Structure to design on (762 residues):
């Protein structure tokens, strides 16, 4: 198997320190060493999520964590408003509907951010129990106004439940300050781990709601996870090696410094957008302000199927980028620049993209893309 | 962190080949290489489970897989009979109840195996949709008569759903021949992987039932997993490294030969029981026939809290064994002998146990235990 450069919005590049932790000998999961490990991870995750609340660690993918957040706080029949920002915003509403919630959609044009004022109007039209939204919509590369959305929900007594799967670590999350009732996140994004570990935090109020929430859950029961957390354990056999890897990743993040880590993400995102524009391409994000810090979605030039481009970049350059999903299939390609990704990785990626675009009949200059990326990263123009 | 010898019924010793696979660079999870990987794993798992049915791979612990098996095949209000063989048998019924099934219990004395005739009588008393049972009850070290239980369920039109979490690989499973409607298994037992990967297989009839089953599920929806499997993918981002490790483990098992691998488990179990008896201790399993091949539960001698023994063995010998759970807490200790465990590991474990028992005031001869284990392993006496 070749070592591919992962420039997708997850799974991402796994640093050697994290890979080593994954391969460590087993650690007893009911002992003191595991309890200390869990405590260190909890503190690190609280810092990333901006919360004093306990953080439950689950052995699932990010979707499992989002489902856990929903089924632990809601009951069948509850009215919820879901921000349909793209594939993942829609998924939140779909999960709630599967468990019997009455879901109303707040539609968002792909590439645009939700407007908190419009969402507030929707919320005013009915008695909603919760507002569901994705902070960073991975399918469109658009950052949703999490603070503003949380605020309009809180003001109307609705719980703000946010999918932060691709936002965690790479983008600032201030759960307590923003008033988020719940956040869910996954490991295979800026946390630089393989998939398979996920985290959920609920506010005090959401935890009280969990006591009365009637959506069924057993494996995803956060009350069990939090009760075990108090004893330094997990309710079901934890993925010990993944938790060891999580600690290694958190240590890398805090060694770089969380503000510096997130600044690097913003600079990489700026560099990626600059490269795209230098290639004469159009961004899917409708504004600089709403463009994601961790993934950039770019419209494929006329006549070029983005799936063909993505495959060529993977097969001939060993670099993995993403195409579009669902209605955006073929129309966009997406570059993840998160976690351990560096400017040099991004430049190598753009060199490959520009070369392949030329072979597909779209003329652009690889060197101009790279120069633009470097200038933007450095903060000049 | 010290390298502990894991002699618990999971997590188990992880062989170097599997650890290396865990630390491999990432592999693109929507490409051909992953599809081939998944196909090889599926074939290997089908061999372990004795089925021609597709096997869904989930990123959960074993409990998640058991829950998936239940919620994909049943509807709220369904009558189910659960064999309460111990902590894990009970858990199956608890999961079904959480999702609204009407659960009747078939009680089993801890240490005994369920009697298929008695279960058949229970089944005759009502219209049951399913029989839930654990094949290897990890909490008591007792093998349940899976073939017999499946047979009485099939004869009455009830689905036989079996938790094979700790049985897979180490004990023969013949899903198709026995007529099991579903099996669920986990990675951290005889499969020699860390926790976090689980598998579920459903029979043709159970898959048809899944189309009408009304227990809610999204992340655990087997239909999604099987639809993706057809494309060589998983519905949610898979734990790629765990799947690579699964392939490495399956290759180790088939290189040893599955019959030989399982014979080694039976010999180790016989050796463990012989050592216990040589120490003058009593087994929890009521007969040789129902004693588990993968975990042995031993009654703690009078006046010795098994929790104290377990801790001493861990802290002073770096060997991890288990105590009892729930009502058996303090009263039994359990030794896992599965996956990569060898006779030498078992002897080292008994030497430590015997030494610590003596310090706790119970007199037994470590050398006699080891000699008995060696004789039993070799098949003499």
């Amino acid at each position: 198997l070749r070592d591919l450069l992962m420039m997708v919005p997850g799974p991402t590049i796994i640093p050697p320190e994290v890979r080593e932790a994954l391969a460590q000998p087993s650690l007893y999961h009911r002992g003191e060493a595991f309890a200390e490990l869990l405590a260190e991870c909890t503190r690190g995750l609280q810092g990333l999520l901006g919360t004093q609340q306990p953080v439950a660690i689950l052995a699932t993918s990010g979707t499992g964590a989002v489902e856990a957040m929903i089924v632990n706080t809601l009951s069948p029949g509850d009215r919820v408003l879901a921000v349909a920002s793209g594939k993942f915003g829609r998924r939140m509403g779909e999960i709630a509907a599967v468990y019997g919630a009455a879901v109303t959609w707040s539609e968002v044009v792909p590439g645009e951010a939700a407007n908190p004022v419009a969402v507030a109007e929707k919320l005013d039209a009915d008695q909603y129990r919760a507002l569901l939204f994705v902070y960073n919509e991975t399918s469109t590369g658009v950052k949703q106004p999490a603070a503003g959305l949380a605020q309009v929900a809180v003001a109307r007594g609705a719980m703000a439940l946010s999918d932060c799967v691709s936002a965690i670590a790479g983008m600032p999350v201030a759960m307590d300050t923003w008033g988020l009732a719940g956040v869910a996140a996954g490991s295979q994004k800026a946390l630089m781990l393989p998939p398979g570990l996920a985290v959920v935090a609920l506010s005090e109020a959401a935890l009280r709601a969990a006591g009365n929430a009637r959506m069924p859950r057993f494996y995803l029961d956060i009350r069990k996870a939090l009760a075990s957390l108090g004893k330094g354990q997990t309710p079901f056999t934890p993925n010990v090696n993944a938790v060891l890897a999580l600690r290694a990743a958190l240590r890398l993040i805090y060694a770089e410094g969380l503000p510096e880590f997130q600044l690097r993400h913003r600079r990489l995102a700026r560099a990626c957008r600059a490269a795209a524009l230098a290639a004469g391409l159009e961004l899917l994000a409708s504004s600089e302000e709403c463009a994601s810090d961790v993934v950039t979605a770019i419209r494929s030039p006329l006549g070029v199927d983005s799936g063909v481009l993505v495959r060529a970049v993977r097969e001939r350059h060993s670099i993995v980028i993403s195409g579009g999903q669902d209605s955006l299939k073929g129309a966009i390609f997406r570059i993840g620049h998160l976690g351990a990704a560096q400017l040099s990785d991004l430049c190598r990626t753009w060199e490959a993209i520009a070369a392949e675009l030329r072979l597909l009949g779209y003329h652009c200059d690889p060197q101009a893309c790279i120069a633009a990326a470097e200038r933007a990263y450095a903060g000049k123009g």
Remarks:
- Chain A touches chain B through 53 residues (CB under 8 Å).
- Residues 73 and 210 of chain A are 5 Å apart (CA to CA).
- Chain A is about 45% helix and 15% strand.
- The mean pLDDT of chain A is 95.
